[in-house]
Design brief:
The protein has seven helices and nine strands, in the order βαβααβαβαββαβββα. The protein has two domains: 116 residues, Cobalt-precorrin-4 Transmethylase, domain 1 (3-Layer(aba) Sandwich); 93 residues, Methyltransferase, Cobalt-precorrin-4 Transmethylase, Domain 2, CATH 3.30.950.10. The longest helix has 21 residues. It is an alpha/beta fold. The structure holds S-adenosylmethionine. InterPro entries: 4pyrrol_Mease (IPR000878), 4pyrrol_Methylase_sf (IPR035996), 4pyrrole_Mease_sub1 (IPR014777), CobI/CbiL (IPR012382), Uropor_MeTrfase_CS (IPR003043). This is Cobalt-factor II C(20)-methyltransferase. Belongs to the precorrin methyltransferase family.
């Protein structure tokens, strides 16, 4: 039998993929690492299917290892007798708790088969939420920027775990970036905020990311000239 790692997408129930929904409906038990992912899963499965797991809110690596061992010990027998799922927000392979579980299962329960169902990651959903295009050929780096940190270097960055937007902002602007912030994008719970002003999001909320783009980037895709050409030929005036 199989343990499915299912990516639920950013948080709205209808952004779960068709495959994710089908697998959720087919398994016997669904484990969730947190309240939000559990709420999304509950749109697709009854509460009676939700398994019991307890994760401590700590950064203490020893406590975390113990919690993952305990979670793996709970899940492994379920996944040997029946199909089971472990859900995460976004994609299970992008900055996700599922990675810890998979490594712990590999170490202590290598007989458990694992399959992953990808989900819509915040890493790509931000582009639509911000109405920006990462055009073909452009580079986009993923970084973490918790506690006021501000990594720099790449032309465009998506920054996860923004917990002190004003401090991060000051450093990014000084390093020559324009920055847009997104909080709770495509989430049902809490307020969605998209802003260029870090003061709008100075209260800490874990579900906050930033898109930073170098101010002096000079991008002109071939199609950018359509507007000019349209004016010249009148095409731009049609309907
Ligand atoms: C541990 S990572 C999980 C990423 C997730 N696996 C994914 O693929 O989207 C958590 C970080 O992702 C970002 N994030 C995840 N979902 C988000 C959302 N709906 N809106 C804004 N940021 C989000 C935040 O920066 C948050 O601190």
């Amino acid at each position: 039998m199989t343990l499915y790692g299912i990516g639920l997408g950013p948080g709205q129930a209808d952004l779960v993929t068709v495959r994710g929904k089908e697998v959720l409906e087919s398994v016997d038990v669904v484990y969730s690492p947190g309240r939000l992912s559990r709420t999304v899963a509950l749109n697709h499965v009854p509460e009676s299917k939700i398994g019991d797991l307890d994760f401590p809110m700590t950064r203490d690596e020893e406590k975390l290892r113990a919690a993952w061992k305990e979670a793996a010990a709970e899940i492994a027998p379920q996944a040997s007798d029946n199909d089971a799922a472990f859900v995460t927000l976004g994609d299970p392979n992008v900055y996700s708790t599922f990675g810890h579980l998979r490594r712990t299962l590999d170490a202590f329960h290598p007989d458990v088969d694992v399959e992953i169902v990808p989900g819509v990651s915040a890493m790509t959903a931000f582009a639509t939420a911000f109405d920006v295009e990462i055009e073909a050929g452009a580079g986009l780096a993923l970084r973490e920027a918790a506690n006021g940190h501000a990594p720099t270097g790449p032309d465009r960055m998506i920054l996860f775990k923004i917990t002190d937007a004003p401090a991060t902002h000051e450093k990014l602007v000084a390093a020559g970036y324009d920055v847009t912030y997104g909080r709770r994008l495509y989430m049902e719970q809490g307020e969605t905020v998209i802003t260029d002003d870090p003061a709008d999001i100075d209260e800490r909320d874990y579900y906050t990311l930033a898109y930073a783009v170098k101010r002096d980037l000079d991008i002109e895709p071939a199609t950018a000239r359509f507007e000019e050409l349209g004016d010249a030929t009148g095409v731009g005036e049609r309907a």
